[in-house]
Amino acid sequence: MDDVLIEKIKNGNDHAFRLLVEKYRNLIFHTVYGVLRNEKDAEDATQEVFLKIYTSLPKYENQGFKTWMTRIAVNHAIDIKRKKVRRKEDQQVEYEESYHTPSTENVEFLVIQKERRHLLRERLKELPANYREVVEDFYIQEKSYQEIAEKTNVKTKTIEVRLYRARQWMKKHWKEDDFS
What we know:
Structural class: mainly alpha
Distance between the termini: 60 Å
Keywords: Sigma factor, Transcription, Transcription regulation
Strand content: under 5%
Largest sheet: none
Domain RNA polymerase sigma factor 70 region 4 type: 118-170
Domain RNA polymerase sigma-70 region: 20-86
Protein name: RNA polymerase sigma factor SigW
CATH topology of the largest domain: Rna Polymerase Sigma Factor, Chain: A
Number of helices: 8
CATH class of the largest domain: Mainly Alpha
Shape: elongated
CATH architecture of the largest domain: Orthogonal Bundle
Radius of gyration: 24 Å
Order of helices and strands: HHHHHHHH
InterPro entries: RNA_pol_sigma-70-like, RNA_pol_sigma-70_dom, RNA_pol_sigma70_r2, RNA_pol_sigma70_r4_t2, RNA_pol_sigma_r2, RNA_pol_sigma_r3/r4-like, WH-like_DNA-bd_sf
């Protein structure tokens, strides 16, 4: 069925392309949404992916259409995510380098944020060493269980257990009011 549609599209049949879009719209949307985690971005990316599929069809050589499309979708979503992160970093640098004086409220907010981060770092020093490293890696460095396990040369399950025990330790020794 897909092969027939693909051939018709390659020969300029726009209706065949609409049928293809209808058939795979949900698959592509869910694929890009899985990477982007934002419905609006995923909708835009889905349309962009179908444009890429349309323009890339002449190069397609019957090597598993769903897999081929999904690879295009995933790669496109990853590119979008990278660009967003880069843009965010660039905006942060521009803000930090700009000469305008932030409003009093912003200064206050930034000072409070800085104090909280400092307090958090100080409190993390109280954690037993075997918990401190895993808490910093997971919550501050935002590493996955797998990444931490590879770094520390232990099993993923060990990381899960350490994080669980670290949370129990924090609940027992710290009060929520300590951080507000």
